[in-house]
Amino acid sequence: MSLVVAITGGIASGKTTVANLFHQHFGIHLVDADVVARQVVEPGTQGLTQIVEHFGRSILNPDGTLDRAALRKKIFSNSQDKEWINNLLHPLIRQEMQHQLQLSTSPYSLLVVPLLVENDLQHMANRVLVVDVSEQTQINRTMTRDRVPESQVRSILKAQAEREARLAHADDVINNDAEGAQLLSQITKLHQKYLALCSENR
């Protein structure tokens, strides 16, 4: 398997934007934990079958897909159900991420994991790239994007790893307070660095 770089960052830091720029400009293979989390509960999967066995068919939409809102409601009010769902899904997600990384044909791969530090998944990558922004930028962007009040954004921030804790795990950092050309120039430098590391590891 090629070099794996994990991308992480707090809410509205621009992780997806950064990952997509690596992909669009340099053809780097992406594995996104949020996408994988949806794939492991698609109709016909072991994940969805077990969820239905545990919670009953009321957890499904009329078309047979998982009713995420209903599931969130159930686990929000019941810590045992929340633990059960985490114990079921986390290993399935990790396994599928590994599988998708093994299929990569680019010189290195990017693993996009929002809660990398919180879920202690640093071991899945050779390097950790933190997309960093100021807390005020996170608040402003989230309020604009999700149309939610500042108090709600602050409670989400409290639930995530603190910025300092995330940065303590970083091998590389992209500052994303400023976007556009400045962002791409940081990505280009890192791309060249990762290619050099791939050559060294051959």
UniProtKB/TrEMBL annotation:
Primary localization class, coarse: cytoplasm
CDD domains membership: DPCK (cd02022)
Compartments (UniProt record): Cytoplasm
Pathway per the UniProt entry: Cofactor biosynthesis; coenzyme A biosynthesis; CoA from (R)-pantothenate: step 5/5
InterPro entries registered for this protein in UniProt: Depp_CoAkinase, P-loop_NTPase
Record: residues binding ATP: 12-17
EC number of the protein: 2.7.1.24
Keyword Transferase (UniProt): yes
UniProt cross-references to Pfam families, sorted A to Z: CoaE
Catalytic reaction list: 3'-dephospho-CoA + ATP = ADP + CoA + H(+)
Keywords: ATP-binding, Coenzyme A biosynthesis, Cytoplasm, Kinase, Nucleotide-binding, Transferase
Biological role stated in the UniProt entry: Catalyzes the phosphorylation of the 3'-hydroxyl group of dephosphocoenzyme A to form coenzyme A.
Protein name (record): Dephospho-CoA kinase
UniProt organism field: Vibrio gelatinilyticus
